[in-house]
Design goal:
The chain is α+β, with helices and mostly antiparallel strands and about 575 residues long. The protein has helices at about 5-20, 35-40, 60-85, 85-95, 100-110, 145-155, 155-165, 185-190, 190-205, 210-225, 230-235, 270-290, 335-340, 350-370, 380-390, 410-415, 415-440, 445-460, 470-485, 500-520, 520-530, 535-545, 560-565; strands at about 45-50, 115, 125, 170, 180-185, 240-250, 265-270, 310-320, 330, 345-350, 400, 405-410, 485-490, 495, 550-555. About 55% of the residues lie in helices and about 15% in strands. It has a five-stranded mixed β-sheet with strand order 6-7-8-10-9. The chain has a two-stranded parallel sheet with strand order 1-15. The two termini are about 35 Å apart. The structure holds zinc ion.
């Protein structure tokens, strides 16, 4: 199959797939248990139409955006191939099958980018599909991790760097002494990348925004040369109304070594209002640091430069960026050389967060909180707390001294450092927002909603257990607030914030966590997690009732569809 036909097949299938679920029909008992089981799996992803406001764009920019979205569609086909060599042929089979079972399989295949259910430990849901290969299609089918390691260990330094790099696949060597050979992405994916590069160049010719044109042309070059450095730098320096991220980035799909980058795209519009809010908070950060509820000697008298944060609204996502649970924020690039020289950038997808808030968090709050608290669950509070969480990672103790020895919190707290740091960013984020309310920067109305919204979102994070660092950090906070009388449990099992108690409790936990970080105390950190890092029965009782609430969203990119239909013309 040519790359072009795979791209159009995916586009057609995606529309057909979402049409099945839209408008959302009431769950009908399907006569075929196989169809019903698949529909239940699909139903965990609530269908949603994702839109972005293009009205600020001049005609030239709309047409450029249409080209960029077309280039992004190419990433879908590329990523499918990267996940499993059998994916393109299976997609053709599923697209041909017009039975209800075939339709349900196609829909779930498109959500998962393959025949394995990512929410269910990669259980296959299409008969005959093999177990999901750990090395994906980055390594030869059947090659074991041990065989690859033996080969890698025998390579020269330069060969090894190539073979373990982001942008090569490993294939069986034809004849010769070596069992394997590294193939550059520009060769392995030549046809698709040539097409994507051409579309990016056309977009670059259309836009009048120089930093955007520079990213698009350097990224097009990178597709053909495998040298992504210049385009990563151009991405860091992007200052445009359109914020595209397209190329091979994340390494999660390579479960052998996390070496190989999966193709993906996030095509978005910059949200100027929210981006300005980040800048406004940025101006208050030193003041917040100076008033942290910790011993004055643990405060940082001069905070370093802020890592840039961009708030955007997603127009289109594809490939690795549109599989299973949707990404709501990301940090790139991953190339350590660029990070050393230019730092990294955090991009927050506001309309994706909003869809998750509406379709997942709000239904959770209806179960976890009393009816009277519903009016205090607000997207503004939810999103602003996430922004503050990101900023607070930069505050508090990082470089510390233990017994006169210079070290870092991360080194001293070892495997528990992430859970502690996530809890710190959350709870000190609440502390910081309260500080800004008291200072008059944020409204009293905001104060009312921020704690209750945080409480509802705690249940969202705890749904999948406490193995992951962020969820463990949430458990610590919820249990601490309960013990401090700042969160109460009603006779009906719902949870409420106790307004008179919550402010002091938040300051107290911020102090406890930041102090143990400043001391580099592994013992205090592990003790805190052991005491408070679990799910208590009252919390579990709520989690058990959340079963029918969707786990995540399944987006349909309406703005991108309109761009495709019009080519960006008004
Ligand atoms: Zn964080």
């Amino acid at each position: 199959m040519t790359s072009n036909s795979l791209v159009s097949l995916l586009a057609v299938s995606a529309v057909a797939g979402s049409a099945c679920a839209s408008p959302p029909a009431p769950p009908v008992e399907s006569p075929d248990p196989a169809v019903a089981a698949l529909e239940a799996m699909v139903g965990r992803f609530a269908p949603v139409e994702v839109r972005a406001d293009l009205s600020p764009l001049a005609d030239s920019e709309r047409q450029a955006l249409a080209k960029i979205v077309e280039a992004a569609r190419v990433m879908d086909g590329l990523f499918l191939r990267q996940v499993w060599a059998g994916n393109p042929a299976l997609l053709v089979d599923l697209a041909r099958d017009e039975t209800p079972l075939g339709r349900a399989r196609l829909r779930y295949f498109l959500i998962n980018k393959g025949p394995w259910s990512r929410l269910d430990r990669n259980e296959p849901f299409v008969p005959g599909a093999p177990a999901k290969p750990d090395g994906a299609n980055y390594y030869p089918a059947g090659a074991t991790k041990a065989a690859l390691e033996t080969w890698l260990n025998g390579l020269s330094e330069a060969e090894r760097r190539r073979a373990t790099g982001f942008f090569t696949t490993i294939r069986r060597a034809p004849g010769g002494r070596d069992p394997f050979v590294a193939v550059p992405y520009s060769v392995e994916y030549e046809g698709e990348l040539a097409l994507a590069a051409e579309l990016l160049r056309q977009a670059a010719a259309l836009t009048t925004q120089p930093s955007l044109a520079r990213y698009l042309t350097t990224r097009a070059d990178a597709f053909l040369t495998d040298d992504y450095y210049e385009s990563d730098v151009a991405w860091m320096e992007l200052d445009a109304s359109i914020e595209p991220t397209i190329g091979p980035y994340e390494v999660y799909e390579d479960e052998f070594f996390n070496y190989k980058a999966g193709f993906e795209a996030f095509i978005a519009m910059r949200d100027d209002e929210e981006t300005a809010k980040v800048a406004r908070f940025g101006a208050d950060l030193q003041d917040i640091e100076d008033h942290l509820p910790i011993d004055a000697r643990h405060r940082n008298p001069k905070l370093g430069a802020l890592a840039p944060i961009r708030v955007v609204n997603e127009v289109f996502a594809s490939g690795d960026a549109n599989r299973g649970v949707q990404t709501a924020a990301f940090n790139l690039p991953n190339d350590e050389r660029v990070i050393r020289e230019k730092g990294s950038k955090r991009v927050m997808l506001k309309n994706v967060q909003e869809a998750k808030f509406d379709l997942v968090l709000t239904p959770i709050s209806r179960i976890a909180l009393p009816a009277a608290a519903q009016t205090d669950v607000a997207f503004e509070a939810f999103f602003t707390h996430i922004l503050m969480h990101e900023l607070m990672h930069g505050l508090g103790p990082h470089d510390i001294a233990v017994g006169g020895r210079a070290t870092t919190v991360r080194q001293e707290l070892r495997e528990v450092s992430s859970a502690i740091e996530e809890a710190k960013a959350d709870v000190s984020g609440l502390f910081a927002l309260q500080y800004l309310v008291d200072k008059g920067v944020l409204s009293k109305d905001f104060e009312r909603t921020m704690y209750t919204t945080f409480l509802a979102s705690a249940f969202r994070s705890l749904r999948f257990g406490t193995t992951e660092a962020h969820a463990k950090g949430i458990a610590v906070q919820l249990n601490y607030l309960m013990d401090a009388g700042a969160v109460s449990v009603g006779a009906d099992g719902t949870f409420s914030v106790v307004p008179d108690r919550v402010k002091d409790a938040v300051a107290g936990l911020t102090r406890d966590i930041m102090t143990l970080q400043a001391e580099g105390s592994y013992a205090k950190a592990t003790d805190l997690l052991a005491r408070l890092g679990g799910v208590r029965p009252a919390v579990q009782a709520v989690l058990d009732r959340l079963q029918p609430v969707p786990v995540d969203i399944a987006p349909r990119f309406v703005t991108a569809e309109q761009l495709r239909a019009t080519g960006g013309l008004r």
